């Protein structure tokens, strides 16, 4: 029951993402589109927290599994902390610093994907498919993270001029 | 890049139960990300951000696969594909293949782009500009990063409203890569409630310059550099630009003669039709508004 509710939440979230993205195509509806996507995300997050049910490999629900209270404290603590930091940064940022903000938030997303990879690696050693997803997600997420940090520094002016790498280093890029 | 892929594939095949090897791959990826971004020139920054954004989406989509989580998958794929499309659109706007942006031909050819500029630079003062704009029929404003830095979006909107009241048609010419991020100018001008149909994209506005009396360039440089059309040695050669030189008068509001983000001179400033209006992108339009009100 809970699982099907969760699936509906996800479906709803996916629809809001797509409709929201479509609305962002036009400056007039962009604000609403962004809010709609955010709403879908909130529903998906809370749906996952409250409606998730642990399943075994055959797909049967493990009714004995109860999430310890400490996990909830940690999750909500992290959400509160992240919300406050994100809210304050976005509120305070000047319009000219917008590209830096976008770059920084993007880097955080990459870091998140990389951390998932680092955590899940040892739990999935038995499955080649899962491992491939973990490694690919981690490498791409990490590149996105460190690249965004450099992009942030460059936009910020801390790294003003493009640094021209000697040919040996640019060939490392390929190899 | 190839070695990263090889390393990753090897780990998937061999499944080494050793976190140290995983961390090694992690740090290799960090170093690669840094090397990937460092050589990319400032003018290409919006493209890079969009590309990195699509990477993040892709990474999230892999997370979705892993957890069998549909929303992570959908969200990731949406971000990834939207980011990729945006990257390609912007590359097209600059008429350069993506590989050229990433592997930094900007840096390589930049040194040969410094041509000797000849001709005179003409100054114009604020009251002459105000008179000129007041008696013209059609004015196009070209905003650039300088406008964003000076936070001049509100005063520019005020200038636009005064001119409209006097029967002057005012439009904004938006270059796809103006500013430092995709859609930077749209966001900025939307903040000061400039009506959206006044913001005109490059392809739509370019034919209009020939029938325009005054072009006011505020804090933009590389996106109006005619070297993109007529100097094959220039690093921005081939990039579509706003053809402001077709207008009857060009007024460039700039703080100094310094080069733009691409680090190259702009021969437009030496054009006989061009007048330089030196000053900050906020104080100058503020003075212009005051002069126009007095007229």
Overall description:
The complex is a heterodimer of chains A (175) and B (295). Helix content of chain A is 73%, strand content 0%. Chain A is mainly α and 175 residues long. Chain A has 3 domains: 1-52; 56-92; 95-175. Chain A is globular and about 55 Å long. Residues 167-173 of chain A have low confidence and may be disordered. In chain B, strand 4, helix 12 and strand 5 (249-254) form a beta-alpha-beta unit. In chain B, helix 3 (45-67) packs antiparallel against helix 4 (70-93), helix 7 crosses helix 13 and helix 9 runs parallel beside helix 13. Chain B is an alpha/beta fold. Chain B has a 6-stranded parallel β-sheet with strand order 3-2-1-4-5-6. Chain B is 49% helix and 11% strand. Chain B has 13 helices and 6 strands. Chain B has 2 domains: 2-110, no CATH class; 119-294, TPP-binding domain (Rossmann fold, 3-Layer(aba) Sandwich), CATH 3.40.50.1220. Residues 105-115 of chain B have low confidence and may be disordered. The interface between A and B is large, with 73 and 74 residues.
Break the fold down into its secondary structure elements and pairings.
The complex is a heterodimer of chains A (175) and B (295).
Chain A: H1 2-23, H2 30-51, H3 69-92, H4 98-120, H5 128-156, H6 167-174
Helix pairs in contact in A: 1-2, 4-5
Chain B: H1 2-14, H2 19-37, H3 45-67, H4 70-93, H5 98-102, H6 105-110, H7 126-134, E1 138-143, H8 145-150, H9 153-165, E2 169-174, H10 184-191, E3 199-201, H11 202-205, E4 214-218, H12 227-230, E5 249-254, E6 274-278, H13 283-294
Parallel strand pairs in B: 1-2, 1-4, 2-3, 4-5, 5-6
């Amino acid at each position: 029951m809970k699982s099907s509710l969760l699936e509906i939440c996800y479906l709803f979230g996916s629809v809001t993402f797509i409709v929201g993205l479509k609305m962002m195509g036009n400056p007039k509806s962009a604000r609403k589109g962004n809010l709609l996507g955010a709403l879908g995300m909130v529903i998906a997050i809370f749906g996952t927290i409250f409606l998730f049910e642990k399943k075994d490999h055959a797909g049967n629900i493990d009714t004995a599994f109860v999430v310890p209270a400490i996990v909830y404290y940690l999750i909500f603590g992290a959400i509160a902390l992240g919300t406050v930091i994100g809210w304050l940064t976005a509120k305070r940022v000047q319009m000219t610093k917008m590209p830096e903000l976008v770059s920084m938030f993007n880097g955080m997303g990459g870091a998140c994907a990389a951390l998932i990879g680092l955590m899940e690696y040892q739990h999935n050693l038995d499955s080649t498919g899962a491992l491939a997803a973990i490694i690919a997600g981690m490498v791409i997420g990490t590149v996105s993270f460190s690249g965004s940090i450099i992009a942030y520094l460059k936009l910020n002016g801390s790294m003003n001029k493009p640094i021209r790498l000697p040919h040996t280093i640019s060939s490392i890029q390929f190899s | 890049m190839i070695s990263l892929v090889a390393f990753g594939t090897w780990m998937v095949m061999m499944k080494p139960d050793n976190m140290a090897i995983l961390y090694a791959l992690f740090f290799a990826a960090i170093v690669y990300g840094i090397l990937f971004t460092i050589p990319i020139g400032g003018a290409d920054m919006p493209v890079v951000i969009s590309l990195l954004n699509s990477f993040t989406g892709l990474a999230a989509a892999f997370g979705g696969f892993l957890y069998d989580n549909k929303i992570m998958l959908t969200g990731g794929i949406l971000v990834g594909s939207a980011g990729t499309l945006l990257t390609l659109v912007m590359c097209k706007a600059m008429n350069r293949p993506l590989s050229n942006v990433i592997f930094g031909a900007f840096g390589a050819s930049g040194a040969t782009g410094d041509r000797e500029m000849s001709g005179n630079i003409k100054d114009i003062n604020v009251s002459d500009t105000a008179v000129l704009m007041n008696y013209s029929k059609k004015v196009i404003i070209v905003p650039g990063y300088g406008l964003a830095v000076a936070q001049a979006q509100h005063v520019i909107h005020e200038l636009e409203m005064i001119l409209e009241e006097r029967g002057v048609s005012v439009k904004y010419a938006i270059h796809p890569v103006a500013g430092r991020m995709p859609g930077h100018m749209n966001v900025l001008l939307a903040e000061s409630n400039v009506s959206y149909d006044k913001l005109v994209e490059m392809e739509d506005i370019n034919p209009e310059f020939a029938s325009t009396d005054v072009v006011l360039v505020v804090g933009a440089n590389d996106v109006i550099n005619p070297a993109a059309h007529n100097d094959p040695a220039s690093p921005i050669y081939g990039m579509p630009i706003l053809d402001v030189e077709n207008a009857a008068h060009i007024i460039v509001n700039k703080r100094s003669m310094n080069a733009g983000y691409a680090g190259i001179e702009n021969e437009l400033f030496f054009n006989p039709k061009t007048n330089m209006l030196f000053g900050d992108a906020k104080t100058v339009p503020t003075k212009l508004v005051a002069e126009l009100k007095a007229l």
